[in-house]
Amino acid sequence: MRNILIIGAGRSASSLIKYLLDKSDQENLHLTIGDLSLSLAQQKTNNHQNATAIALDICDENQRKTEIQKADIVISMLPAHLHIEVAKDCIAFKKHLVTASYISDAMQALDEDAKANNLIFMSEVGLDPGIDHMSAMKIIDEIRAKGGKMILFESFCGGLVAPESDNNLWNYKFTWAPRNVVLAGQGGAAKFIQEGTYKYIPYHKLFRRTEFLEVEGYGKFEGYANRDSLKYRSIYGLEDVLTLYRGTIRRVGFSKAWNMFVQLGMTDDTYLIDNSETIS
Q: Which of 25, 72, 128, 132 is catalytic?
């Protein structure tokens, strides 16, 4: 059987584990699910015959390397900053690697080594699993096939709560790593081009600059700029477009409330707020 090592059994790994276990007999797969919490890994295996749960501390270099050596494919569902050591081990032991994070500079630096060893290193390819890019290129290609010219491209996406489950004042729920939700939007200014003018929105102003959207059948939403839209000009072949904007979509009111946390410094994880449990 092909052995797939999944490192990290948190929220984001749940659907992945279920999908692979459902396919395991058909595809001749065995899953080794490693997490710092053995009980969590055991919970995700659900006693499946094609899965083994192990306690795995990725900071334990010897254990990490031992488990990676046993695998045919490694899937890292760890926080993004922890992928790099796993990736280096995968190159050393010639193992394919999949992550669910955007490609960092450190990961990009391993590109030539991965190619030289004939390895596949696959990272985040857009809104899981690339729905935004596939739908964008489908529309762009259709317009070009009809002789049209692109002068404006705007897209919005976001993980929204189904109406029947929307039962809190935020109109939002954690469906992925909570820390990543809190840190979303950090890491440099959001960049886009609008009617020929370059725009740069720093993090402390990001949630103030929103626009409203009406989605037929679902009501009103708001959107804010998502990271670096400019790099998609060459990827999409839209070098001459006057407007290129990729945004995140939320229910109305989310950004105004979240902006309060940003201004209070509560989304900054570089320090602790003492006595926070008594503050409201």
A: 128
CATH number assigned to the domain with residue range 131-263, chosen from the 4 options 3.30.420.40, 3.30.200.20, 3.40.50.300, 3.30.360.10: 3.30.360.10
Nearest alpha-carbon partner for 7 in 70, 49, 64: 64
Distance CA 280, CA 264 (A): 13
More confident residue, 187 or 189: 189
Residue labelled with tokens 């000009």: 233
Q: Is 35 a catalytic residue?
A: no
CB atoms within 10 A of CB 234: 9
Gap between the Cα atoms of 225 and 179, Å rounded: 20
Q: Is 199 exposed, middle or buried (0-12, 13-18, 19+ CB in 10 A)?
A: middle
The whole-number pLDDT of residue 274 equals 86
Angle at 174 between CA 172 and CA 175, to 5 degrees: 110
pLDDT tens for 78-91 read 988 999 999 999 99
Amino acid at site 209: R
Quote the pLDDT of residue 129. 67
**Total-model pTM:** 0.75
- pLDDT, residue 179, reads 81
Strand (E) or helix (H) holding 212: strand 211-215
Tell me which of 3.40.50.450, 3.40.50.2030, 3.40.50.720, 3.40.630.30 is the CATH number of domain 2-122.
3.40.50.720
Please answer whether residues 82 and 106 qualify as being in contact, where contact means their C-beta atoms are separated by less than 8 angstroms: no
